[in-house]
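Hi L.,

As promised, Class I SAM-dependent methyltransferase:
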Amino acid sequence: MNNPWLNIPISDYESHMALPTVDQSSMTADEFSRVLSQFTPESVAVIGCAGGNGFDAIPSSTRRVVGVDINPGYVARARERYEERILNLEFHVADVQADLLAFDPVDLIFASLVFEYVSLAETLENLSRVCRPGGRLVALLQQPSETMTSLTPSPYRSIQSLSQLMRLIPPSEFTGHAESAGFALESGRIVTIRAGKSFAVQVYCRKS
């Protein structure tokens, strides 16, 4: 089956995420900024980087930045926006559940709204190979709502193709797979955005 992410234009994706009824772009950028401040990594990888949402918050003290996305159009847009602004920036077009990631291990891996669309075991094994011992994995996981659909209705028709792929992941299930891949849970909290949906922010440390 062709991955539906390959057929969603970056303009549709970014416009959808910025809708008041979705309101997830700012949440992702804010959480990325927060963990950069908390952990001050010298190297960071953003999984599902799309067009580079949140990259404006990357400080000069972060000396290596890796962006990964399955959609080459998203990577091209992020490169266009940031390759002249961020030193030692590299991009990889990859399916994180199937492809070996071809970059050196980093101090921090940030993945927002990625794990709902991939196989957990394979993806976390791949990510463990590119997270240095003692490094962190930060995962943002959408939580179920009693009043809202998992995939918010959108005027951008291409977005609706994701419904065939999307699956919400309970934090406990995610933690089980993460531990099997060599990550230990450090903290977890819930963020609720103005649009009404809630997200688990899970922080894991890569075991030595």
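The beta strands are 43-47, 64-69, 89-93, 106-112, 131-142, 183-192, 198-206.

Thanks again for sending the construct details.

K.
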